[in-house]
Amino acid sequence: MAEDSDLEKTEAPTGRRIEQAREQGQVPHSRELGSFLVLIVSAGTVWFLGGWFVQRLSLVFRKGLVWDRRAVDDPEYALTRFSALSWDAVVAFWPLILALVLAALASPFLLNAWNFAPKAFTPDLTRLNPLNGIKRVFSWNGLVEMVKAVAKAGLIGGVAVWVIWREQDQLFQLLSLPLDAGLAMAGDMISWSFLLIVAAMFLIVAADVPFQLWQYYDKLKMTKEEVKQEHKEMEGSPEVKGRIRRLQREAAQRRMMSAVPKADVIVTNPTHFAVALAYTAGMRAPKVVAKGVDAVALRIREIGAEHGVPLLEAPPLARTLYRFAELEDEIPGALYNAVAEVLAYVYQLNRYREVGGSYPVPPRDLPIPQDMMVEAANG
């Protein structure tokens, strides 16, 4: 049962899944919304700019209906004149054309579906497979589209029939009215009929848009295993992250070991801890160039012995330095005096190696704050 649930697409699509779908050109869309916007915008444009359209078209018709003998005798002149009249008609309708273009662009914008996906232009020969086309026709989506088409035709057709039935008396009155009055009455009837049809279209859009959004995100649903796999790809699998951390530790350890030969002294526990310190002129305080416990401490001591770095057994100081001093940082101020005694001993030891004399006595009872020493011992 657990395996079956992992294979069921029950999880909402992640942001990455949605982005991948958009890259493939898969975005939510509603044909009904596009049709509704084109219809309402075109009607509104004609409503507000009707007088302007009539004036422009009247000029076009007047030019076109003027008798010109040259148009009969010269075909080229007739073609030139026809082209000019056609351009005048296009200019007359440019506000309507612009409004329709904006309406067509607004439809995907309202669904957050504006998207440029070059992958969508890649030829896909599977779309030419007639079997796939038949499957789409008889699929659940095809059935829904058919139901929508029937419902839309029935609703809009029903509204049209109701309007005609309601206005049948006025339709017959048009035959007996003067031309101006008849045109005015016909215009009012067409306007009210259009408003009713638009209202019916709005009901269709109000039902179609939520359905299209639900269907889009339902198709993108993921299984639990897909979500886990995507999380691994985004964040990195634990195995890969563990290997990266191990490689980083190894690289840091190699850098640390390469600094041991440059140390001035290695303070040891003597076996469990090892901290290498370095101090040069101009530094504000000595800094830790290497530190470690157990096997790492042993390796620090070995490298130090190979390069002649002095070793000092001072367990309390070694533990305290390891606990409170970070790698490549200066030692804490509370340990300045203790480390100063250690460096003085190292200076004496180096002088003894160079010129001889009495062997220096290693420092004992170094001045380490009691609270730091207790915390280092317990930590």
TrEMBL record:
The keyword Transmembrane applies. Signal peptide: none annotated. The keyword Protein transport applies. One of its GO terms (biological process) is bacterial-type flagellum assembly. InterPro entries: FlhB, T3SS_substrate_exporter, T3SS_substrate_exporter_C. It is a multi-pass membrane protein. Keywords: Bacterial flagellum biogenesis, Bacterial flagellum protein export, Cell membrane, Cell projection, Cilium, Flagellum, Membrane, Protein transport, Transmembrane, Transmembrane helix, Transport. It is found in: Cell membrane. Residues 1-26 are annotated as: Disordered. It comes from the Bacteria. Residues 7-22 have a biased composition (Basic and acidic residues). SUPFAM superfamilies: EscU C-terminal domain-like. Belongs to the type III secretion exporter family. Required for formation of the rod structure in the basal body of the flagellar apparatus. Together with FliI and FliH, may constitute the export apparatus of flagellin. This is Flagellar biosynthetic protein FlhB. The gene is flhB.
